[in-house]
Amino acid sequence: MVFSSLEFLFLYFAASIMIYFIVPLAFRNLVLLLVSLAFYGWGEPIYVTIMLFSIIVDYICGYFAGKYRETNRKKARRFVIASAVINLSVLGFFKYYTFIVSNLQLLPFEFLKKIPLFADVKLPIGISFYTFQTMSYTIDIYRGDARVQRNIASFGAYVTLFPQLIAGPIVRYQDIDDQLRSRPHNIELFASGMRTFICGLGKKILLANCAGAMWEGFQTLSATDATVVGAWLGMLFYAFQIYFDFSGYSDMAIGLGKMLGFQFKENFFYPYVSKSITEFWRRWHISMGTWFREYVYIPLGGNRCSKLKNYRNIVIVWLLTGFWHGASWNYVLWGLYYCILLVIEKLFLHKLLQRLPGFVSHIYTLVIVLFGWWLFVFEDLGAGMTYLGYMFGQGVVAFTEVGATYDLLRCILFLAVLCIASTPLPKKLFYKLYEKGKGARLAISAGCAALLVLCTAYLVDSSYNPFLYFRF
Amino acid sequence: MDDTTKKIQPVPDGVPAKKEKITADGEAAKYLQLQMRLKKESRGADLVLILLTLGFIYVMAVLFWVLPDSDFSPQENRTLAAAPELSAENFFSGNLTEQVSDYMADQFPFRDFFVGVKALSETAQLKGQNNGVILGSDGYLITRVDYPNEAVLKTNLNAAARFQQAAQKQEIRCVTAFAGRKQDTCDKYLPAAYGSYYADRIWGILDGIAGERDLEYINLRDSLRRYASDGESVYYKTDHHWTSLGAYYAYTQVIESLGDTPLPLDAFTAETVSEDFYGTTWSAAGAKWVKPDAITYYYGENESYTMAIEDNTRQFEGYTGCTYEERDGKSYAVFDSIYVREFLEEKDQYASFLGGNFGYTHITANGMGERETLLVLKDSFAHSMAPFLLQHYDLILVDLRYYKVPMLRFCEENGIDKVLMLYNMETLTEGDYLKVLGAGLGKEK
Known about the structure:
The complex is a heterodimer of chains A (472) and B (445). Chain A is built from 20 helices and no strands. Chain A has 472 residues and is mostly helical. Chain B folds into two domains: 96 residues, no CATH class; 295 residues, no CATH class. Chain B is 35% helix and 18% strand. Chain B has 14 helices and 16 strands.
């Protein structure tokens, strides 16, 4: 179930939120666990067992890691390793097995051909997110960054927490350790959460889905109808789609969290205003970047080691980042692409960019990111190359054609909205208005409710509601 | 855990996070503090927000459960999803999830209202189209197709050409006429930036294939386009069909090729039978603010017909002037008129012409003696042309989508004197419906 669906809003949310606030405080984590399991089981009635398995594994590993961390470091370490091995094996099997085996079978060894492919095993929703979360628990315990959670209901609630279950943000255990034990529930927080949620819903439905519908039209460009303008317009819409889709989903998660009394960390910080790739990655999918930094980069030595090792660490982190996004070569290339760019920026370009006028470095960043999305979106490298050709006039019928020009013209206002919505401006204006006075705040409340009605209208109108980050 | 920030080390790129201005969490915290600081003053607004949003959600949720389901959406002309079967098997197979999703979208309270709201919102963003329908000037709602299926067009024209040639060999006069879609004909009402480019393109392709295959055809697009650009209502604004007037203009051309003289328009009596026709493109566009069309019937001097429709589902049971007859194990709905006026009370009013789409329809005039029989191989555009053609011939109308028999033999068996193939571009590019015409005509050249 995705948040941007009628069944979530009018069945699941309506019911869960009522139950959650009716039961006494002491049982709320249990309620959270149960409703979250229902949320997940609704979409994955069978794979929910994998998640339960992951919960039990880390409950036990975390318990022993905590028990021995003071007395027997070595023993404690074994449980951390066990947790990592088990979680990564589960993730590896469901996400990467088929990819790895089918690539190995390209090698000229007969025995490799006999390995079963399990190509029809589908990826459990959100597995990339929750395995990372459960691992972080055991590691945090081992490092002394968090306390052991003896209540399995509370621990289960952390893992299954429906707001961030299927598409993040990746919440580290240490960040909500305290909140699991006690958290505030009040009107201000609930209202604030509702505003954030509706803002995210609007981003997803009014911006991402509409941009996605445009991209879908251009994605299928072929030799008979491809144009340069169409190809660029398509990539542009995709760039907006993926941003508003993902950041909208994160906003919805954060908003729902607030309603339930949690404070998750932000996941996006206007990435499209960045003036360098370095900056872009500080602003894009922050929780994933943090996870790789905390649990991979720094343990490998980070940058507090020799230059060579430092570069090795960067390469490892970015290959993993790319691969985490999907079991396909294009994601690996995508990770490598950013790795190379970040190293170049680190060597000299970043210093140069800071000296250039702002708009130059901004355009540079946007162009790089746009080509990044090109790498990202085409799992079939052949199709990707063809599309890239279109962008540069290879194999197109014309520079532009009526359809592309007409779409550009009729979407000018929409594109302007997308651009402005990518900047901090709307939020700034929102809070300016919010501070203005009671009347303004009442207007905001009415506006939020109207936005909810509008989003509902779009959902009713259309079954077109694909959610991009489902695959991860 | 406010102290987590102190542990943040340089990010993997290694650029030291010196004088990092403001972070995402910093900004979020700042704004949350602001909201908390103002919490007393904003209590009222907060309560209003919660009341409105949760109120909306719960009211809709309750209405969804309480209101009875509807089986059919007249506006969309389709059956709506019904409540899914709640069984373990259905659940574990993963079907239930999807079914509930469809069910909720289809049975959502005030569904039509929400669809209209979405259309209005798209229009307000100046997007100029909704659900693939361009909101043209003067209330014309025009389906947009940039690239119709050329391969299908080729298959259809190929079969049509072979049939035409085979029929002519047997000395049956066979006239082929192709009508435009609204996009082809009513481009006057399209945005200038869109215009007739794609329409011209596909008609150029049609022309090319017809030339290659020696297919003779009447181009009804060109002639009706001239009428449309003169401002005549030759197509419905809210539907994809041509109007009776449009059909009349097309008839004048077709009848000449069939070797007869068209009757002048004033030989007919016009009656406006409906002024609230909301057609297919209106449904798709959800443009509730667009005004409905009117439907006009044109009557000739003798309007006494018998119309027999092969209808094994007996869907006209109980309609006025309709009786059922059984012949050769098939059911025929026999009407004493070519109009099924019951449809004028429903959404799909165009179906009042000949009762809608059926495989086989036979219309004979009463008291006009022995007349020639014209076989019309057609899509629904022919339905509103039938009143005019009936002034000259008895008609057998065949829709090849539902009635697939070898047509040359059919002509022999049914004493067909002339054949008219009448199709609009949408049918020609939508599916290879005409392919069956080529069946049994020997090997392709």
